[in-house]
Amino acid sequence: MLQSRSEKIANYIIIGLLIMFCFTVLYPFLNILAISFNVGTDTQKGGITLWPRAFTTENYYVVLHDSRLLNSFFISVARTVLGTASHIFFTAMFGYAMSKKYLLNRKFYMIFSIFTMYFSGGLIPVFLLFRDLKLIDTFWVMVIPNIISVWDMIIFRTFFSELPVELEESAKLDGCNDYLYYFKIAIPLSTPVIAAVSVFNAIYHWNSWFDAAVFINNEKLLPIQTMLNNIINANTSAQMLMEMNASAQELISKRQQFTSKSLVSAAMMVTTIPIIFVYPFAQKYFTKGIMVGSLKG
Amino acid sequence: MAKKIQPLKLKKDSYIMRFSRQWQLQTMVLPAIIFIFIFMYLPMWGVLIGFKDYNIYKGFAESPWVGLKHFRYFINLPEFPRIMKNTLGISIAKLVFGFPAPIILALMLNEVMNASLRRTIQTISYLPHFISWVIVAGFVFELLSVNNGSVNLLLRWLGIIDENINWMSRKEYFWGILVVVNIWKGVGFNAIIYLAAISGIDPTLYEAAVVEGAGKLKRIIYITLPCISTTIIILLILSVGNILNAGYDDIMLLTNMGKNGILYDVSNTIDIHVYTWGIEKQRFSYATAVGVFKSVLNVVMLYSANAISRKLSDSSLW
Fold first, then answer.
1. Of B192, B210, B215, the CB nearest to A287
2. Contact assignment for A120 to B147 by CB distance below 8 Å
3. Facing B112 at nearest CB: one of A18, A44, A148
4. Are A272 and B135 within 8 A, CB to CB?
5. Which residue of B has its CA nearest to A203?
6. Smallest Cα–Cα separation from B257: which of B245, B243, B269, B241?
7. Does A35 touch chain B (CB under 8 A)?
8. Which terminal residue of chain A has fewer beta carbons within 10 Å of its beta carbon, N or C?
9. A5-39 pLDDT tens trace
10. From the list A47, A91, A145, which residue is nearest B39 (CB)?
11. How far is Cα B112 from Cα B123, in angstroms, rounded to an integer?
12. In this complex, how many residue pairs, one in chain A and one in chain B, have their CB atoms less than 8 Å apart?
């Protein structure tokens, strides 16, 4: 395609703007990364942008020895693993059964599910329900309410309904029952969709903070995002450092070079690294996931 | 030879017979239906406590009915106009600036001919969508920090300001900060749906336009935008139906769960009000009523947006 001169210039301007935009997206990550690797007292002098000036890894040393943060990190890992596993187990099975046209009451089940996508009780009735179910202040309040998602059920249903019907017919002729067919044939054939939904659900669980902030008071059960928010909002660095546990305290008193800013930056990086790590997988799947959902949703 | 096996049609089986024959499939559905009933339908029923004076010791059934008392109390609150102004203001600001942003990004990305460059830009652009709000709020606090935050550094370097500004303790900047942060976090991800719509446009339209001598801008205005207008309108209707959800992640995290006194006047929205009165002060009935008030208004807004759109254009949700 032949381009006029003015169009070429316009192209360069567009690319220039987009590259500036990308820089704005990446800058906060790079800035916090630089601060987290810089000596705290040196950061206070200002001017840290993309590169640490007085390099140190001790911010990470302190953060990784703080028992509160470590504990919350493991809570987050546990909720992510258990939450995603239970979500996939129940939601995929639901989606599979719903993909069968001969399922009795199928239409009723569908309306029953879809209705909840548009109407919900709101925060307080949910809180009271969880209290009646004795879920408040337990680990399970982060897992059980998330095992079924109607949206993901529709994604699974769409995928399973595209499996060839002949496959099921011949398996059934050979004496295969529904459970056997589902676990031995349908599941192995659907690894791409299971992987996609898993990655998204894992990111959801890792990033959740509000449910724990509302439903959990016990500090030992807080996931890392909620804990990090509490730390960020601790009024002063003195308060924050005081709340750090004994072994980290020792190190802090030995060297007077830590500030709350540098420690929070290191903690933020520790919290974000798992996401950066799974991002390439997520990014491979999610355009597909959105398309499947919007097609028949 | 290849005779299809036809099931013999005798008498039609009873419902119970057919149901019990597929008990395996039904047991796959059952846990989900029970779950949806308990975790999604019971809270809807629980909304009724908004019309009662709920007392923890008396329980749901014994608490007396009070009709619209809590609704009246909320509407007559001296704070009520402020809360509505904040909710609608933040929400409309997010809509006005946040809605066109992904469309503009998609149009710009579509002009990048180099496929690998385009993919790289896109990959970077949706990274923030996967970062938790807690981290994003942390970014905001550090970048806007009065102690040598990067924004103050940049503005001083450019000579726009002489002294560091304490961004997070000035009321007039708060809504702007919310809008910028939300665009930063969502623009890349929200552009995907528009890019998909653009990629569905028949390329011969563009070829014909080029032959006719239409420039880049004309092609965008007369081909691309009209072709994706249905997508734009549908998404716009849905956003209007969400107008009373000013969002809670960003506001709560940036105001320390609504407890930031300096920003209270500009950050107290319906959602924050529900959280403060329901969860922290445990006024369950009142907070539920406020939540119901919000949902009802949202439904009204969605209906009117849809009706207006059906009048003005042919696109509508139903």
1. B192
2. no
3. A18
4. yes
5. B130
6. B269
7. yes
8. N
9. 888 888 899 999 999 999 999 999 999 999 999 98
10. A145
11. 14
12. 231
Q: Per the domain annotation, does B243 fall within a domain?
A: yes
Distance in angstroms (rounded) separating the CA atoms of residues B289 and B282: 13
Q: Contacts of residue B257 in chain A, CB cutoff 8 Å?
A: 213, 233
Whole-angstrom CA distances from B105 to A98, B116, B192, B196, B230 are 38, 17, 10, 13, 18
Give B212-240 pLDDT, tens digit per residue: 888 888 889 999 999 999 889 888 888 88
Which residue range forms the structural domain that includes residue B101?
69-312
**Which residue type sits at B72?**
R
Selecting from A129, A203, A229 the residue whose C-beta is nearest the C-beta of B253 gives A229
Provide the mean pLDDT of chain B.
89
Please state the pTM of the whole predicted model: 0.89
Q: Which residues of B touch A97 (CB under 8 A)?
A: 25-26, 28-29
Q: What is the pLDDT of residues B270-279, one digit of tens each?
A: 999 999 999 9
| The pLDDT of residue A296 | 37
Nearest residue in chain B measured CA to CA from A270? B135
Say if residue B182's pLDDT is above 60.
Answer: yes
Q: Could you list the residue range(s) of the whole structural domain that residue A113 is in? A: 58-297
For A150-187, the pLDDT digits (tens) are 999 999 999 999 888 888 889 989 888 999 999 999 99
* Residue B29: per-residue pLDDT: 95
- The answer, for B43 touching chain A at a CB cutoff of 8 Å, is yes
* Interface mutation vs chain B, best among A103, A124, A275, most B CBs within 10 Å: A124
Query: Residue B113 belongs to a domain with what CATH number?
Result: 1.10.3720.10
Q: Assign residue A179 the CATH number of its domain.
A: 1.10.3720.10
Could you tell me if residue A248 is inside a domain?
yes
Residue A255 confidence (pLDDT): 63
Please give the tally of structural domains in chain A: 1
- Contact between A119 and B45 using a beta-carbon 8 Å cutoff: no
